[in-house]
Specification:
Pfam families: Ribul_P_3_epim (PF00834). This protein has 9 helices and 8 strands. With 232 residues, the protein is an alpha/beta fold. Bound molecules: D-xylitol-5-phosphate and zinc ion. Zinc ion binds next to strand 2.
């Protein structure tokens, strides 16, 4: 995984057919996805339950590129090894998930995965500053985590300040929640490079009819790249 600030589209399989994850991952990658975003929810940190390391291990062989695992669970530490062994390239934990995020990030890097730090809409950047040397990605939530298909909460100011804080460090800024061709440009302009999109990617398509996935991915990418000044 070489570092680049080019726009990356990361479809969230939360919006895929849960009975067909393998084929859905192959379909979105074939249709132009850069990363595959995997939302792990525990029914405790967030009010919804999805799946755990066994499902991640099962879908891993169906993903050619980056498997980006977003843990919405608490506690986190005892499960890190399991997600690393399942083949996660990036493991992202929430700053709100416990009192010892520093230890959690150390454990993620020690597992061999890249370390991501997620921050909810109500969380500021104060705590992030002390962690910059131990993270590879900050995931700025633009919805309150737990469900797909929610309305975008504008975090432009936070993303701009985060981008300035990061400076030349090789840390991705990922945006998660409510990304569409209308909202993605705001975040790309503010400094984001990874755009997670669930409903806006999977809408209108299926494994049997994957072309809409490609159209949706291209629409989000084109809007975001236009906002950053990259020729499209
Ligand atoms: C929310 C998840 C998101 C979500 C995005 O808790 O972390 O990844 O699936 O879904 P959309 O794009 O539908 O908002
Ligand atoms: Zn997510």
């Amino acid at each position: 995984m070489s570092f680049s600030r080019a726009i990356k589209i990361a479809p969230s399989i939360l919006a895929a057919d849960f009975a067909n994850f393998g084929a859905e991952c192959r379909a979105v990658e074939d249709q132009g996805a850069d990363w595959v975003h995997v939302d792990v929810m525990d029914g405790h940190f967030v009010p919804n339950i999805t799946f755990g390391p066994a499902t991640c291990a099962a879908i891993r062989p169906h993903i050619r590129g980056v498997m980006d695992v977003h843990l919405m669970i608490a506690p986190v530490d005892m499960y890190i090894e399991g997600f690393a062994k399942a083949g996660a390239d990036i493991i992202t934990a929430h700053i709100e998930a416990g009192p010892h995020i520093h230890r959690t990030l150390q454990a993620i890097r020690a597992s061999g995965a890249k370390a991501g730090l997620a921050i909810n809409p109500g969380t500021g950047l104060d705590g992030v500053e002390n962690l910059l040397d131990m993270i590879d990605l900050v995931c700025v939530m633009t919805v309150n985590p737990g469900f797909g298909g929610q309305n975008f909460i504008d975090m432009t100011d936070k993303v701009q300040r985060l981008r300035a804080l990061i400076g030349a460090r090789p840390i991705h800024i990922e945006i998660d929640g409510g990304m569409t061709p209308q909202t993605a440009p705001l975040m790309a302009r503010a400094g984001a490079d990874v755009l997670v999109a669930g409903s806006a990617v999977f809408k209108g398509g299926s494994v049997a009819n994957p072309a809409p996935y490609g159209e949706n991915i291209r629409a989000i990418r084109a809007a975001a790249e236009a906002a950053t000044g990259v020729a499209v």
